[in-house]
Amino acid sequence: MKDAFGAPQSVLVLGGTSALGLATARRLIARRARTVWLAGRPSPALDAAAAGLRALRGGAGSGPEVRTVAFDALDPASHEDVLGKVFAEGDIDLVLLAFGLAGDQAHDEASPPDAVRVAQTNYTGAVSAALVCAGALQTQGHGALVVLSSVAGERARRADFIYGSSKAGLDTFAQGLREAMDGTGVHVMTVRPAAVRARAGAEPGPGPLSTTPEEVATAVELGLRRRSRTVYVPGRLRLVMAALRHLPGPLYRAAQPE
């Protein structure tokens, strides 16, 4: 259950090696999260991510319990069993859906199977995992599901429309799931970050705005406290995207970076 300050004490990160997911987990550990599950394909990277979190000192002055679970977004048939076992271990306050593939637009256009892999990971796999977790949270009667989408899903760009279309589908799904969970005690929040650079001070990503994993983590925590429905990172991106959505096609294309 959440602590007296409303901070989640148990967290499940779907996409256990995700930079955004791990940054959020680190921030929540500093705010008293005691148990973190990292779900992902077994790998040295997943083990290293877990070890890094275990080494942290949380708000109570001791390190968290960090566990890993084998999870494959591209195997929806396994999701109910794999994730059900996590929830059987105890209540989960927060599920962070953080996995996804950016893909390579030029390559994927020429290789439809690779384009399909992007779509299946970012949309089909996410729909399956989110429905399983939402059902488990509903059974608990409490909890939050945070879906990491992207501003790339708000309007198609020539540079990344395969990735963007998968995020557009995920975004619409999350909106509908939020309505379905209304009144159940389950809060669904969509996060739409700009292009993510590795760290503060790194070279900005493409486009006029960019962000970092740490900035996304801060926005997630604040959004949870406010029970926000949709969070943009950085916040001013909300106004930028409102303008871009209504920009005439020729002007929109001209505004895109080469």
UniProtKB/TrEMBL annotation:
Stretches assigned to coiled coil: none
Spans traversing the lipid bilayer: none
Keyword 4Fe-4S included in the entry's annotation: no
Family: Belongs to the short-chain dehydrogenases/reductases (SDR) family.
Family annotation (PROSITE patterns): ADH_SHORT
Top-level taxon: Bacteria
Keywords per UniProt: Oxidoreductase
Name of the protein in its database record: Decaprenylphospho-beta-D-erythro-pentofuranosid-2 -ulose 2-reductase
PANTHER family assigned: 5-KETO-D-GLUCONATE 5-REDUCTASE, DECAPRENYLPHOSPHORYL-2-KETO-BETA-D-ERYTHRO-PENTOSE REDUCTASE
Signal peptide positions on this chain: none
Organism the protein comes from: Streptomyces tremellae
InterPro entries per the UniProt record, alphabetical: NAD(P)-bd_dom_sf (IPR036291), Sc_DH/Rdtase_CS (IPR020904), SDR_fam (IPR002347)
